[in-house]
Write a structure and sequence with these properties.
The chain is mainly α. Helices cover 68% and strands 0% of the residues. It has 10 helices and no strands. Helix 2 packs antiparallel against helix 3 (63-89) and helix 6 packs parallel to helix 9. The radius of gyration is 21 Å and the shape is globular.
């Protein structure tokens, strides 16, 4: 008969620790871990976007097939990253999502504080740049080559407003209706669709926009077009939040 396993000295203390109920919000992680998750997730996302764009242009000259390959890789990559890192940081990977969450929670509701947002956003931007450099390195390209892909036309800017507003409406609509568990599939699917139904191919993300300027490849954006895209993304976030308040009013908004 095997000897009984010794009882750990801290067993009574561990048994007394409260455990979250099934399906409850996971415990809040240390800010350092959350910032690391935002950096890694955004870097991986941009590496997927830029890397798949490079691969696609090396395999075919058909622009439609290139965009299809780029969008499919982004859908799968984004879904996996949200599923993996969502329990740590919320898987924002996007300054407009972070700022929108701060805005909606600024009166004591759930969401990041302004101090946390001030950590998230630089981590996202640094991650996006690192992801672009990594993608270039994997394909033997210059580590930093400013994109020459001009995207300053007015219809492209309108596309960014639409893409970003739809993204914010989706994410915060899911949150208001208690269905955030569907975010990995829903957000990835939306971005994949928006690649095709928006004229800008749906950047919808200031950090990713900055990162993609560092790669003169299929997914790049000229530095001169970055400010316009970011401005329209911020405008889209405002439109998206207004739509959330209209379609999914909170108790306070409904009472008002």
């Amino acid at each position: 008969m095997p000897a009984e396993s010794p009882i750990p000295a801290d067993a009574p203390a561990r048994a007394a620790e409260p455990r979250p109920a099934p399906g409850a919000t996971p415990p809040r992680r240390p800010l350092g871990a959350r910032a690391a998750a935002e950096f890694i997730g955004t870097a991986a996302l941009v590496a997927v976007v830029v890397g798949s764009g490079i691969q696609a242009t090396e395999l075919t000259k058909d622009v439609g097939v290139q965009l299809l390959a780029n969008s499919l890789a982004t859908v799968f990559g984004l879904g996996v990253l949200i599923l993996l890192l969502g329990p740590v940081s919320g898987a924002h990977f996007n300054p407009v999502v972070t700022l929108a969450e701060w805005w909606t929670g600024r009166r004591g509701g759930a969401g990041v504080t302004i101090q946390e947002a001030a950590v998230y956003v630089p981590a996202q931007i640094a991650g996006a740049i690192a992801g672009a450099v990594l993608a270039d390195a994997m394909f033997g390209r210059p580590l930093v080559a400013w994109s020459t892909h001009d995207r300053s036309a007015g219809h492209l800017l309108l596309g960014e407003v639409v893409a970003t507003a739809g993204l914010i409406l989706l994410i915060f609509g899911l949150a208001r209706t208690g269905r955030l568990q569907h975010a990995p599939a829903a957000v990835a699917s939306y971005i994949g669709a928006a690649y095709w139904f928006t004229s800008s191919t749906s950047f919808a993300n200031p950090a990713v926009t900055i990162g993609r300027a560092f790669s003169d490849t299929f997914a790049g954006i000229a530095p001169g077009s970055v400010a316009g895209f970011i401005g329209m993304q911020l405008a889209g976030a405002v439109v998206g939040l207004a739509l959330v308040a209209l379609v999914f009013p909170s108790g306070r908004e409904a009472a008002g």
